[in-house]
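TA notes, week 10

Several of you asked for a full example with nothing omitted. So below is the full record: structure tokens for the whole chain, then the designed sequence directly under it. When grading your own attempts, check the secondary structure regions first.
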């Protein structure tokens, strides 16, 4: 009896010892796993691959519990459905998917998503207990862990499940951090691209600004030179006119003077180019339709050439606020450049379309609506190192040729608040693109008219000057004329011409002196019948300001505007500003005679 009791006690003690040993080993393993959690957190935080994070997580979970199969049902960002993205062993993936689908239909899956702990489904349709645990941070659900236990006994696994929650929470934060890291990295890369693009845009804009300032400086210099040169030409041409009028028509000296006169007209063409390029060439704008202007100008540019034009111009091409004459020069110069690059053969393609520029367009232009004109050739093209130089005055790669053509085109476009670009590859032709701001007003109806030669072309030889017999102006008598000009040479020659034509002349050096002399003459028996006013008087009152004061003194005063700046608005529409007519310097005696007849009669 005693031996039976002792044997039973010994057996119980042995069972207790085995239990304690198992419990000890289990707790040691749990403590070891707890100790390894720090390494687990570090290792998954450093991962830059979601699959690697899940792989490290599975390894720790399998050390924690005995699973026959594990899987991760991750959220699909597109439709927020759950998809088994990782199952081990892979042969059980269809089984796990079926179990998950059943629990989704039953609502258990959704209930498990809302829990902060593991949910054990003790009996699935294949008889295996299943563990569900959400993988989520406080702000975001990343997915669900699904584990099929290899044993039906689920007792005593509470501690393991608590550790499972800790591991999966760390996994969720690691996945969220990785997602944020990728988003930030993508944002930084995009930002770097944006910064690099914007930097290039700013560099290009700075280059364009520097170039514009350089061109403006050259333009100011060119305008000053052209103005002074025009004044000198006016003196030379005026004296030639007087000399020719005093000589017999068939005199050898008269023939020589005619040759000199022709040279003066060629020099006048040069100053016209300088003035178009300079600040003196400010455009006189009005709303115009580009389509007919482009076609007329292009056809004129190709006159006498074997090259042809193909037009692709939108029927609704925006109208623009532009100086029609200057725009003709732009088209003519670009088309002439194109046909020269193709050796006067081939086809020049001209495209006109509407463009709406928004933020980030990369051009030194304001956002808005633009008429876009492209002149495309299939010529020799331009070397990359020359692309930045082609708008420089007199730069050319054509032997024996050179000029202001492209420089003037760019200057005109810039003055219209537009921009001109060029794209070219050697041997593949070039494309010049002009952007002009669209007008808010309807275009003035187009009137077809003969196209004049562009600024780059040499003028035809001057016609022989009209010979005017001394003191013979048809239908007029001797008149009192006041001449205002700051240049003594011009005053002298103009006085000589007017005296030759039978008039009495008085002189003033600026607008204030002219108004004072006019007002004083009004009180005498010899008032002035006409005033010739120079528009530009450096450091003094010019004709544009003086005409207002003059009309205050005498509302019926007659005045002629005179200037070497042919693009001054007053020179294009003199009557609008109170003048009866305009004379562009330099002019011949015959031109002055014609204008006097018109005004005095």
């Amino acid at each position: 009896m005693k031996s039976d009791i002792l044997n039973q006690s010994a057996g119980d003690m042995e069972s207790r010892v085995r239990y304690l040993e198992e419990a000890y080993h289990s707790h040691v393993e749990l403590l070891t796993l707890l100790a390894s959690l720090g390494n687990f957190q570090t290792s998954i935080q450093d991962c830059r691959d979601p699959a690697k994070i899940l792989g490290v997580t599975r390894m720790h979970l399998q050390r924690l519990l005995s699973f026959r199969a594990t899987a991760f049902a991750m959220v699909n960002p597109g439709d927020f459905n759950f998809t088994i993205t990782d199952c081990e062993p892979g042969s059980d993936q269809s089984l796990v998917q079926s179990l998950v689908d059943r629990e989704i239909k039953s609502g258990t899956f959704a209930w498990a998503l809302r829990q902060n702990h593991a949910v054990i489904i003790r009996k699935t349709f294949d008889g295996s207990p299943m563990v569900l645990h959400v993988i989520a941070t406080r702000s975001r659900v990343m997915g669900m862990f699904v584990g099929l236990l290899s044993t039906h006994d689920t007792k005593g696994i509470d501690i393991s499940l608590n550790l499972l929650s800790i591991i999966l929470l760390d996994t969720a934060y690691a996945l969220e951090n990785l997602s944020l890291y990728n988003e930030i990295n993508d944002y930084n890369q995009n930002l770097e691209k944006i910064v690099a693009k914007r930097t290039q845009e700013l560099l290009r804009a700075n280059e364009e600004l520097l170039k514009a300032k350089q061109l403006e400086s050259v333009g100011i210099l060119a305008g000053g030179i052209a103005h002074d040169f025009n004044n000198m030409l006016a003196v030379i041409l005026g004296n030639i006119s007087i000399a020719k009028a005093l000589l017999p028509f068939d005199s050898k000296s008269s023939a020589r003077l005619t040759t000199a006169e022709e040279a003066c007209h060629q020099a006048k063409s040069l100053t016209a180019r300088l003035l178009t390029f300079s600040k003196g060439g400010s455009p006189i704008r009005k709303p115009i339709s580009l389509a007919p202007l482009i076609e007329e100008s292009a056809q004129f540019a190709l006159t006498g050439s074997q090259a042809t034009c193909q037009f692709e111009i939108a029927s609704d091409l925006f109208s623009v606020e532009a100086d029609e004459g200057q725009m003709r020069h732009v088209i003519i110069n670009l088309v002439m450049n194109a046909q020269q690059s193709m050796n006067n053969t081939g086809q020049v393609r001209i495209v006109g379309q509407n463009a709406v520029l928004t933020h980030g367009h990369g051009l030194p232009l304001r956002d808005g609506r633009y008429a876009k004109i492209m002149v495309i050739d299939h010529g020799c093209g331009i070397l990359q190192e020359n692309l930045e130089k082609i708008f420089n005055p007199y730069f050319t790669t054509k032997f024996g040729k050179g000029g202001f053509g492209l420089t003037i085109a760019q200057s005109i476009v810039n003055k219209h608040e537009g921009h001109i670009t060029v794209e070219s590859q050697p041997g593949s032709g070039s494309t010049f693109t002009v952007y002009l701001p669209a007008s808010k007003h309807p275009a003035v109806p187009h009137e077809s008219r003969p196209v004049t030669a562009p600024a780059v072309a040499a003028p035809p030889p001057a016609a022989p000057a009209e010979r005017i017999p001394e003191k013979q102006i048809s239908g007029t008598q001797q008149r009192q004329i006041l001449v205002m000009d700051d240049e003594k040479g011009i005053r002298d020659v103009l006085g000589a011409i007017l005296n030759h034509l039978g008039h009495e002349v008085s002189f003033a050096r600026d607008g204030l002196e002219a108004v004072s002399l006019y007002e004083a003459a009004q009180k005498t028996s010899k008032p002035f019948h006409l005033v010739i006013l120079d528009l530009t008087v450096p450091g003094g009152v010019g004709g544009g300001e003086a005409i207002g004061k003059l009309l205050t003194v005498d509302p019926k005063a007659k005045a002629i505007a005179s200037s070497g700046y042919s693009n001054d608005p007053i020179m294009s529409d003199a009557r609008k500003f109170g003048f009866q007519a305009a004379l562009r310097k330099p002019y011949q005696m015959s031109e002055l005679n014609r204008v006097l007849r018109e005004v005095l009669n």
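Confidence is low (pLDDT under 50) at residues 452-466, 469-475. Use that as a sanity check on your answer.
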